[in-house]
Amino acid sequence: MNGEAIVFWVVAPVALLAAIGLVFTRKAVHGALLLAVTMVCLAVLYVAQEAPFLGVVQVVVYTGAVMMLFLFVLMLVGVDASDSLVETIRGQRWIGLLAGLVFGGLLVLAVTRSPFDEPRGLARVTPEGNVPGLADIIFTRYVWAFEITSALLITAALGAMVLAHRERTQPRPSQRELAGRRLRAGGAAVSPLPSPGVYARHNAIGTPALLPDGTPAESSISRVLASRGATGSVSQANADVIRVEELDRRSGEPTQGGTT
Amino acid sequence: MGTTPYLVLSALLFTVGAVGVLLRRNAIVVFMCIELMLNAANLAFVTFARLHGGLDGQVIAFFVMVVAAAEVVVGLAVIVAIFRTRRSASVDDASLLRY
Known about the structure:
The complex is a heterodimer of chains A (260) and B (99). By secondary structure, chain A is an all-alpha fold. Chain A has nine helices and two strands. The model of chain A has no long low-confidence stretch (mean pLDDT 83). By secondary structure, chain B is an all-alpha fold.
């Protein structure tokens, strides 16, 4: 077993497992990281196959630029934008899996059945090394395609800017207009929302403030904290209030200061 | 080492990517699976370049990478634009043209 075979049999399973993980993870962020693993593995395989330039380009372009772009968009779109489990087409999942298995089986069968010569290797055509050889061929035979590529890249950059740009259809509301809107809406508090309670025993920002009648004010905790479940729950605060009130009744005088 | 293991790996990666496109709904995950298929094709290109002893396969793989980068930029911009108007990144939700 030569060195190349060892590299292949170490790297290939990792690449394949990471790719399978990409399909079956629930969260898109994990999928993006697994795809980065697959791409790094492929870069190693390129280097092992006498394509060091492509290996470096793979790392720089794919794991560097493309995956960063994916992670940025995931950040914009929402990390927890997970899949719905509702099937729009009945049985699509099983049919898709079956089609994939059949397709993969056919492909692997065709590849394994066809006889390949021993690879000729690139040492004969690239006496000066991989990069000079590639430069020779890109700037002679493929120079037209290379020039067209620049037009493609500029078009893509402009297209992305046009697509991602958002025109404001109405002027930005001033502070005065916002205040007026809040007053006209009625009902809602005109003053700022209550700040969370600061008590000795709880994480202060996650603990709801107590209203004068002793009930916790849900509007005092940040919506983000509440949805993440990072708050000392409202019912917990409630229980504390009840216990302190009981202590008060037993001792006969109200405790001063905070409740819990 | 022969050519076949590389080609089998390439075929398997392509299949996994295709299955991902068929199974997943999240537009970003579908997009990542497309990238996986492009990468698998690139691996086959590099392998065949070595098999035939010419650099053309590597040049084609290089161009595939460039085109894939351009495609990712535009595709992700489209996804962001759709997400802005519909607050959803599911490929099933953007079905207005059906009616």
